[in-house]
Amino acid sequence: VQLQASGGGLAQPGGSLRVSCAASGSFVRIDDMRWYRQAPGTQRELVAVISTDGSTNYADSVKGRFTISRDNAKNTVYLQMNSLKPEDTAVYFCNAPVLYYNNDGAPIALNAWGQGTQVTVSS
């Protein structure tokens, strides 16, 4: 089971970017999907969460600017980032608890992380 993040890049202040994260492999269920970010010299912080029923929560710093969504058929979570600010510059990581069965048929709960994608906001 893998989470593969994509998107990101460079944007000017006030601009927009979208990052995506797709789950691949054989699994039974993915629960809440989350986006975190980590800027140099800081701790990783939770940015947004979306549950399986589509309910969402956001960090105060991104409310009204970022939108998290998911496509359950594609096992993909998105983060649309608008009105970007220089302080949004960070590596963005997707995260999700994934349930799968190992080769012995035992259920395994994995806290899966994507590899991170860089978002830079600068003029």
Would you mind describing this structure in some detail?
0% of the residues lie in helices and 57% in strands. With 123 residues, the protein is mainly beta. The strands form two sheets. Strands 2, 4, 5, 6, 7, 10, 11 and 12 form an eight-stranded mixed β-sheet that branches. Strands 1-3-9-8 form a four-stranded antiparallel β-sheet, with no helix packed on it. The chain starts with a strand and ends with a strand. The mean pLDDT is 94.
Write the layout of secondary structure elements.
Blueprint: E1 2-7, E2 9-11, E3 17-24, E4 29-30, E5 33-38, E6 45-50, E7 56-58, E8 66-71, E9 76-81, E10 90-101, E11 107-113, E12 117-121
Parallel strand pairs: 2-12
Antiparallel strand pairs: 1-3, 3-9, 4-10, 5-6, 5-10, 6-7, 8-9, 10-11, 10-12
Short description:
The chain has strands at 2-7, 9-11, 17-24, 29-30, 33-38, 45-50, 56-58, 66-71, 76-81, 90-101, 107-113, 117-121. With 123 residues, it is mostly beta strands.
Q: Can you tell me the overall shape? A: elongated
Q: Could you report the average pLDDT, rounded to the nearest whole number?
A: 94
Helix content: under 10%
Distance separating the two termini: 38 Å
Q: Any low-confidence stretches, pLDDT <50, length ≥5? A: none
Please tally the helical runs, counting DSSP H or I stretches of 4 or more residues: 0
Largest sheet entry? 8 strands, mixed
Structural class: mainly beta
